[in-house]
């Protein structure tokens, strides 16, 4: 456990430092590659860390027995299959798969946050506290999320073709990203009602009570579009299988953060208008509403993953505003939110959330 705490706190320190160093360094790409590379190697060498670690290793070894023609017969997402097959064909150990996926996802994260240079260090810091340990378990979906995160630049600029090309890549790593095909339309004014705090608060409360009423419709909708055998098996457990959740307090703290973001949304939409905050908030709102509706259902909880996890970005905007505010309450609120974020990260490590601890290395 001591090793896990040391490693994860080091990552919490060095990844945001990457943002600070590259801000004032002419060789920013070299510095970023060095830090991201070292973290990727460190995490890639893990052994039995992450709830699905053994499944990833078994699949990697299994793909080595197949030909590339199995691409059209496998249940696994095509790009993930190709990545496994390519590395395996080079006779590389599974560690290289973990290293490459971590490097890709952190590289995309860094490149995406570079669009908000003033938020780079803070954004990397919050990403680690909210999502890093999770990424060791659901690495396919986390990589898919980072591709979506990168594609937001095209969504905000209205470059639909580039956006959809990115989303096709995201789908290639995790089929849940299909929902992101619809996210592009949230940039249109017809969805401006999602920037109304009162409406969003009402929808937020209502979203906790509608799952059972929507279950039949959800089943019918997904049944029309899902043909993958693995997801059909998941669909059969719809409404009957829940994920284990480690802490009711942790869930409550997420709700508090969401409510604070809703309360400050109008103010931040004005301040950060040129950064597309208004549209980012709409996407986030759809994510948290779907997350509340689906709860901890094993299958459906994956659907809003990319949408709701923009939380760390919106919280970065909020904290930047609060920390530089002259109002004492705002600064105290910022410290409170930072303490919550770091506290949940540390408690998650101690409880071994997503199988992130104890941390160990192995062959």
Q: What does it look like?
A:
With 363 residues, the protein is mainly α. The protein is built from 17 helices and no strands. The relative contact order is 0.13. About 2% of the residues have low confidence.
Short synopsis of the structure:
The chain is 67% helix and 0% strand. The protein is an all-alpha fold and 363 residues long.
How are the SSEs ordered, and which strands pair?
Elements: H1 2-24, H2 28-44, H3 53-63, H4 78-89, H5 95-113, H6 120-135, H7 139-157, H8 160-173, H9 197-206, H10 211-225, H11 229-235, H12 248-263, H13 265-271, H14 277-294, H15 305-308, H16 311-323, H17 328-351
Helix-strand makeup class: mainly alpha
Number of H- or I-type helical stretches: 17
Determine the mean pLDDT: 87
For the sheet with most strands, the description reads:
none
Radius of gyration: 20 Å
Q: What is the terminal-to-terminal distance?
A: 20 Å
DSSP helix fraction: 55-70%
Low-confidence stretches: 240-245
Strand content: under 5%
- Pattern of helices and strands: HHHHHHHHHHHHHHHHH
Specify the overall morphology.
globular
Number of strands: 0
């Amino acid at each position: 456990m001591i090793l896990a705490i040391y490693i994860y706190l080091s990552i919490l320190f060095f990844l945001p430092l990457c943002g600070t160093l590259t801000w004032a360094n002419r060789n920013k790409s070299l510095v970023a590659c060095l830090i991201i590379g070292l973290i990727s190697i460190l995490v890639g060498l893990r052994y039995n860390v992450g709830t699905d670690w053994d499944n990833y290793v078994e699949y990697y070894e299994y793909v080595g027995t197949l030909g590339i023609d199995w691409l059209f017969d496998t249940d696994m997402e095509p790009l993930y299959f190709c990545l496994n097959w390519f590395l395996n064909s080079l006779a590389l150990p599974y560690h290289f798969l973990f290293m490459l996926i971590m490097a890709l996802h952190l590289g995309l994260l860094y490149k995406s946050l570079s669009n908000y240079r003033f938020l780079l260090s803070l954004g990397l810091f919050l990403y680690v506290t909210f999502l890093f340990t999770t990424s060791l378990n659901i690495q396919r979906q986390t990589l898919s999320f980072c591709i979506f995160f990168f594609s937001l630049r095209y969504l905000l600029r209205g470059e639909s073709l580039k956006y959809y090309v990115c989303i096709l890549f995201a789908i290639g790593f995790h089929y849940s990203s299909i929902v992101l095909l619809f996210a592009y339309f949230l940039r249109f004014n017809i969805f401006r009602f999602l920037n109304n705090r009162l409406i969003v608060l009402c929808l937020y409360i209502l979203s906790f009570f509608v799952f059972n009423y929507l279950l039949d419709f959800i089943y019918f909708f997904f049944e029309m579009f899902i043909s993958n055998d693995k997801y059909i098996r998941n669909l059969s457990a719809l409404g009957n299988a829940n994920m284990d959740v480690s802490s009711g307090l942790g869930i409550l703290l997420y709700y508090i953060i969401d409510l604070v973001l809703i309360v400050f949304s109008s103010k931040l939409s004005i301040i950060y208008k040129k950064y597309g905050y208004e549209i980012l908030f709409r996407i986030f709102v759809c994510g948290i509403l779907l997350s509340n509706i689906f709860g901890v259902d094993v299958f459906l909880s994956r659907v809003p993953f990319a949408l709701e996890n923009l939380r760390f970005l919106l919280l970065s905007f909020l904290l930047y505003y609060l920390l530089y505010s002259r109002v004492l309450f705002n600064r105290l609120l910022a410290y409170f939110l930072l303490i919550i974020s770091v506290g949940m990260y540390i408690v998650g490590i101690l409880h071994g959330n997503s199988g992130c601890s104890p941390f160990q290395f192995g062959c």
